[in-house]
Amino acid sequence: MKVLILNGARNPEGQTARAAEALAEGAREAGGEVEHVLLPPLAIERCRQCQADGWGICRTYGNCAIEDDFAGLAARIAEADAVAFATPVYFSDLAESLRAFLDRLRRTCMHEAGKARIAGTPAVGVCVAGGGGGGAPECTMHLTKILSRCGFDCVDMVPVRRQNLEAKLPLLAQTGRWLAGER
Fold first, then answer.
1. Cβ–Cβ under 8 Å, residues 80 and 4
2. Does pLDDT of 183 surpass 60?
3. d(Cα 126, Cα 168) in Å, to the nearest integer?
4. What is the mean pLDDT of residues 82-93?
5. Who's near 151: CB < 8 A, 6+ residues apart?
6. What value does the mean pLDDT take over residues 43-49?
7. Torsion over CA of 125, 30, 130 and 10, rounded to 10 degrees?
8. What is this structure's pTM?
9. Three-state DSSP class for 161?
């Protein structure tokens, strides 16, 4: 089973990266093939709302007109058996890199051709809040709404705060094992 992890964290060794890696380790233990992608270094523009009505070819054809790393990443999602979305939490919401990607993915999924590429794909969300950590549960709600709109099968959302990260790492490893085939 191929598991794709999209990580919106800037720091490849920070709390979100540790949480995502625990999930990846669990998936590998279950025999899964894991690809872990850090989003901030990629060239992913914000949606341009190409036409006067605020849409573009996303609504007409299920693709995006912007030529950057988005299309290749969307294709990797289509090839994956399961996808995990890891994000640091800022202001009770997704990191900007993940938000930019998902805003465009959501638009392409408004067309059946775009939605069909990922419909029913199991998805897990991991939302890691620093500071007081109170925004993690709200962030999981935002992520669930977006992924469901795209057509993913949201099988789990894991809110994490810096205060309970160590306790959540074994849970994330178990989630990875489950996601990669022990379901």
1. yes
2. no
3. 10
4. 96
5. 109, 115, 116, 118, 119, 120, 121
6. 93
7. -80
8. 0.95
9. strand
Percent of the chain with pLDDT over 90: 83
Which residue in 43, 170, 49, 67 sits closest to 107, CA to CA? 49
| Mean local confidence (pLDDT), 46-66 | 89
The single-letter code of the amino acid at 62 is: G
Give the closest residue to 84 by CA, choosing from 122, 28, 116: 122
User: What are 35's two structure tokens?
Assistant: 């690809």
Query: Please, what is the Cα angle at 155 between 59 and 31, to 5 degrees?
Result: 110
Q: Break the chain into its structural domains and give their ranges.
A: 2-182
Which pLDDT tens digit goes with each residue over 102-156? 999 999 998 888 888 899 999 999 999 988 888 999 999 999 999 999 999 999 9
For residue 54, give both structure tokens. 């605020």
Tell me how far apart the alpha carbons of residues 110 and 150 are, in angstroms, rounded to a whole number.
Answer: 7
Complete edge-to-edge strand list for the sheet that includes strand 33-38 = 33-38, 2-7, 82-89, 122-129, 153-161
- CA dist 96 to 40, 78, 85, 142, Å? 9, 22, 13, 13
Question: Does the domain made of 2-182 have the CATH classification 3.40.50.360?
Answer: yes
